[in-house]
Design brief:
By secondary structure, the protein is mainly α. The protein is about 75% helix and about 5% strand. The protein has 10 helices and 5 strands; from the N terminus they run E-E-H-H-E-H-H-H-E-E-H-H-H-H-H. The strands form 2 sheets. Strands 3-2-5 form a 3-stranded mixed beta sheet. The longest helix is centred in the middle third of the chain and has 34 residues. The N and C termini lie far apart (about 75 Å).
Length: about 325
């Protein structure tokens, strides 16, 4: 079968467009993204340090929160430096294998974040619905196993995506990626060959991780609300509900952005590409930026430790 003249055989280097249609203002668009990244780094690093150094916070809920902070640092760092290199320093090229590595890192950390949110929801479910069993269920060993499991699950599930691209897709219509990072479907759509298996496995992996976690978290919170509603004392109901507010905020914004980005990339051809790509960036950047602010404001123990840390520095 002859190869068309304009077909590229697995290009060694791919080139990012950035945000199509907004190339002339990308240098300005990078400023708020950079600010969000710096706030995410500072906020999540502070969160991890506080939880690690304060022994009273060595409980499952806060350990999961530290895992979330570490994941957010890794996720945003996998995305933003290269993106700012495209926007500010005109460095749009990336080696094909480096692109696959970035794809693996981004999708793996996305999956880990989803798994941490599930672990946090289950922790709140047991703490509120079965409080007498919480200490016996969420032992340090069990928390460790959860951490290992929710890390290995996406890390292993993403690998076939890379192998299917590397081993199946040899011919590409272009080496230009209309995106700011190596998103799975953005790379797959460059190929001239049949991509049904790649698309199917992408959907399968997304459901195994995101879909399963979303359903499980939703069911957990439904049961939590039912239990809280039947508590006899109003003060107890408010206290139980307040412990769930930060998780609900983080859970809602993460999955709303995730589902919008996921479905528009596959069926939202009527949505302008610059809107879709901007929202895809926000989907990856808003949770790392948003999470430490939510937990810092709504969690009294974290807020007290931050105040204590800065007050002691001011006194010195």
């Amino acid at each position: 079968m002859p190869i068309p003249n304009d077909t590229v055989i697995m290009p060694p280097i791919l080139t990012f467009v950035g945000i199509p249609g907004l190339e002339s203002v990308q240098c300005w668009i990078g400023i708020p993204f950079c600010a969000m990244y710096l706030i995410a780094l500072i906020g999540n690093t502070l969160l991890v340090i506080i939880i690690k150094s304060e022994r009273t916070l060595h409980e499952p809920m806060y350990i999961f929160l530290a895992m979330l902070g570490a994941t957010d640092i890794a996720l945003s760092t996998s995305l933003v430096p290269k993106m700012l290199g495209i926007f500010w320093f005109h460095l749009p090229d990336i080696y094909f294998d480096a692109c696959l590595l970035q794809m693996w890192l981004i999708h793996t950390f996305q999956g880990i974040e989803s798994g941490v949110l599930l672990a946090m929801a289950l922790d709140r479910y047991v703490a509120i619905c079965h409080p007498l069993r919480h200490a016996t269920i969420f032992t340090p060993l069990f928390v460790t196993h959860i951490g290992i499991g929710m890390t290995l699950r996406p890390a292993i599930l993403v690998i076939p995506c890379l192998l299917l691209i590397k081993c199946r897709l040899k011919l590409y219509r272009t080496k230009i990626i209309s995106h700011t990072y190596c998103e799975h479907m953005a790379v797959v759509k460059l190929a001239t060959e049949d991509i049904f298996i790649n698309k199917f496995y992408g959907l399968f992996g997304a459901f195994i991780v995101g879909g399963f976690d979303f359903i499980s978290i939703t069911l957990s919170y439904i049961q939590i609300f039912i239990t809280v509603a039947h508590l006899p004392q109003r003060k107890a109901r408010l206290k139980a509900f307040n412990t769930c507010i930060p998780h609900m905020c983080v859970f809602s914004q993460f999955y709303l952005l995730a589902f919008f980005s996921f479905f528009t990339h596959r069926s939202g051809s009527h949505i302008p590409s610059h809107i879709h790509i901007t929202l895809s960036i926000l989907y990856l950047l808003v949770p790392p930026f948003f999470n430490p602010l939510v937990y810092g404001v709504k969690t009294k123990q974290i807020r007290d430790q931050v105040t204590k840390m800065f007050c002691s520095k001011v006194q010195v």
